[in-house]
Amino acid sequence: METKQTEPVTIISLRKLSLETPETQPKESKTFTVEDAVETIGFGRFHIALFLIMGSTGVVEAMEIMLIAVVSPVIRCEWQLENWQVALVTTMVFFGYMVFSILFGLLADRYGRWKILLISFLWGAYFSLLTSFSPSYIWFVFLRTMVGCGVSGHAQGLIIKTEFLPTKYRGYMLPLSQVFWLAGSLLIIGLASVVIPTIGWRWLIRIASIPGIILILAFKFIPESARFNVSTGNTQAALATLQRIAKMNRSVMPEGKLVEPILEKRGRFADLLDAKYLRTTLQIWVIWLGISFAYYGVILASAELLERDLVCGSRSESEAESEVAVTLPDTEESHSPCHCHMFAPSDYRTMIISTIGEIALNPFNILGINFLGRRLSLSITMGCTALFFLLLNICTSSAGLTGFLFMLRALVAANFNTIYVYTAEVYPTMMRALGMGTSGSLCRIGAMVAPFISQVLMSASFLGALCLFSSVCVVCAISAFTLPIETKGRALQQIK
């Protein structure tokens, strides 16, 4: 009886073993995503080359934008322009930027970041050269508007950098790109101080076009974004790009097969206003608009303060006498309310010093972004920007004015650094370029309004203009502090 009782148990246990054994035999094949590959490969020589080439797009963009500030006094004099006409030049440049920023963002999410970046540089270089042959004010405005359209596509360089950088390096490498904007700003101011008094503003524009043309040749060394390729189903191209990066960095690829979902619907405006991102998008738009308004307000106000002596004690009598006065013939044009006030050497020095301020807070900005987070860091710098705008109203010496402008440039540059990083990180790949494009477009609305405050309202009511700039910065500080998503240490999202 005992034998009969134990035998069924033995049979059952064998059956259990036979049933369990097949379940453990199949092995699942390993897979990885682009995010896994980027993190595994790590930071290396490819990223240094990427940083230098894509970062140099900031040099070209800064030269084209800052060109307006240094050329304004010359064209005001040459074509007998009134204040609103000078302001209109800058406004139309940013109008072109605003319209095409959305268009290029839409196309970049659908057809690729690299293609749009190349097209924007070819467009910008072509119309920039044509600007130097402008026969009249109307032609100058039109051609600079076309340049603004081209420059709007340069933001794709930042997106390519963002999508290739490992998570822990984004908070350090992206803010360092400010160095290139600084280099471009200093280069155009330095060139203007030498070229304009000798061979004229037209040659300044031609020389300023050279870096953009050279950079076009360097784009062939940078591949299309691997994240974009997998989103379109072009997995082989993405894999080849990642393998090339791993080889260049002397690193290894993760084991397994590259697998990512194909995103059929990319670059749709409806996604930006989806319930998940609606509040984030609206607050980002407010912040971009305000930061741009303050940034270009500072740049144009700096030139205006120096050109028109709007702040008491900003220039000594001896320096004022060194201004070049242009005497017009006794015609109807000679009765124009416009007066020619060309920049003196000391003015160029002040512009250079204040521009260097853009890099002054960069180390603190990087620390703030990585330790305090994107939102808190941005709210602090925006609050300080509001304060320093009001301090400009203090009656001070030339050195004091330079100091205030130095700090303002440092703060507004830090604001731009942080919002660029945040916007590139917060949106998923399927709408990242469109998110940057629409933000850049709203940004240019602020830039379009800034000239009329810095170059028109400031002449009528200096304190009123400063209070307006300060108030906008306070609104942006509050909006930054209440952003719903913090992107510090967050992996880039592929889909919503």
Question: In short, what is this structure?
Answer:
With 496 residues, this protein is mainly α. The protein contains 23 helices and two strands. It has a two-stranded parallel ribbon.
Q: How does this model look, in words?
A:
About 8% of the residues have low confidence. Helix content is 74%, strand content 1%. The protein starts with a helix and ends in a 15-residue tail after the last helix. It has 2 domains: 232 residues, MFS general substrate transporter like domains (Growth Hormone, Chain: A); 199 residues, MFS general substrate transporter like domains (Growth Hormone, Chain: A), CATH 1.20.1250. Strands 1-2 form a two-stranded parallel sheet. The protein is mainly α and 496 residues long.
**Helix content class:** over 70%
SS element count, helices? 23
User: CATH fold name of the largest domain, please?
Assistant: Growth Hormone, Chain: A
Kindly provide the name of the CATH class of the largest domain.
Answer: Mainly Alpha
Beta strands, count: 2
User: How would you name the CATH homologous superfamily of the largest domain?
Assistant: MFS general substrate transporter like domains
Note the run of SSEs as H and E.
HEHHHHHHHHHHHHHEHHHHHHHHH
How much of the sequence lies in strands comes to under 5%
**Global outline:** globular
- Overall radius of gyration: 28 Å
CATH architecture tag of the largest domain: Up-down Bundle
Average pLDDT taken over every residue: 82
Structural class: mainly alpha
The CA-CA distance between the termini, in Å, is 67 Å
Stretches where pLDDT is under 50 for at least 5 consecutive residues are: 6-21, 313-338
